[in-house]
Amino acid sequence: MSEKPARPVLITGASGALGRQVTAALGARGWDLVLTDILDFPDKVPASARFVRADLGDGVAVLRLAEGCGTILHFGGISTEHPFETVLGPNIRGIYHIYEAARREKARVLFASSNHAIGFHERGETLDADCQLLPDTYYGLSKAYGEMMGRMYWFKHGVENVNVRIGSSFPEPKNARMLSTWLAYSDLVELCVRATLAEKTGTCVIWGASANTRTFWRSDARAALGWLPRESSDSFAAQVGGIVSDDPVEERYQGGGYCSFDYTRKEPAPRDIF
């Protein structure tokens, strides 16, 4: 019988692409799950789960959903770039509600952060988890904010949190950049398992990528969690390695096309950051 947490797990954004993958896998293991999303759940709800439709902007609803839960796997919110006012509610106010719920329930949070929190680092750089946050969009900015929220709640309230800077999680990598950033669904699920079952996490950052030899990223806290990704983008290199854009901004930075959204500089940004 597989390992199982002592208390139920709340999954936000359960109706989204990644939430559905995690829900199906953890449901198959018999985990007790509370699922929520602003949209209806499109699949069959696992026998050990219940789904409640809710808005992350509703703090009372989030508190009720988290009652009795030991871990919150937070995949909810706006998942792509939008105007600031659109991102503000679910991604900024919503993460506050998540952490207030975690504080009350003494729960751990896995926060689905993003590579777009560091997107303006250049592709020639190899980054450690403690690198400077350089968000490339309002979406990326909200992810950087969420990571900082987690740090504050750890130091001020002792709320443990694992911040996963997800690269590109799809069935397969789609272009040359994703040979560096791809995260297989199976590796994501196992990361959620390890983050939930770890004895302790403090506040930490994990690069959400599979074992890709072309990675932009290196040191993080995966060893402390016991997470070892098993998939790799390497087998797709011949298939997608030649797929690049004609946009020099997109091809320069780790955040790819997100760096080009509303980009108005007339010359490349200087490498020096003061």
Note down, in words, how this protein is organized:
The protein has a 7-stranded parallel beta sheet with strand order 3-2-1-4-5-6-7, with helices on both faces. It is an alpha/beta fold and 274 residues long. It has a single domain, classed as Rossmann fold, CATH 3.40.50. The model has no long low-confidence stretch (mean pLDDT 96). Helix 4 (138-157) links the parallel strand 5 (108-114) and strand 6. It contains 9 helices and 7 strands, in the order E-H-E-E-H-E-H-E-H-E-H-H-E-H-H-H.
Helix/strand layout:
Elements: E1 9-12, H1 17-28, E2 33-37, E3 49-53, H2 59-66, E4 71-74, H3 84-105, E5 108-114, H4 138-157, E6 161-166, H5 178-181, H6 185-197, E7 203-208, H7 222-225, H8 237-240, H9 248-252
Low-confidence stretches: none
Domains counted in the coordinates: how many?
Answer: 1
Mean pLDDT: 96
Provide a count of the helices. 9
CATH class: Alpha Beta
Compressed to H and E, one letter per element, the order equals EHEEHEHEHEHHEHHH
Helix content: 25-40%
| Residue fraction in strands | 5-15%
Largest sheet: 7 strands, parallel
Rough shape? globular
Distance between the termini: 53 Å
Fold-level CATH name: Rossmann fold
